[in-house]
Amino acid sequence: MPAAEASRVDSPQLQALGEFIRAAGLVRRIGVNLNQAVARLNATGQHSGDLLPYAAESLRRVHLLDQAADELRRQLRQ
User: Which residues contact 28 (CB under 8 A, 6 or more apart)?
Assistant: First the structure.
């Protein structure tokens, strides 16, 4: 592998992109947990008081993660 390719593969931006991919997987797990909580709500008609704030915060964090990933993608394409 030429040196230019090796340095690109090892770049901090690509390492960060890998972390974003890992974080996206964790966010998907949050979605599964929220779906389970909503299923319990639908089944019982009762929810804990933190369900809605937890869902809102999860969505906010997903949005921030998406924004950061988009910025990183732009940097990698330059």
Answer: none
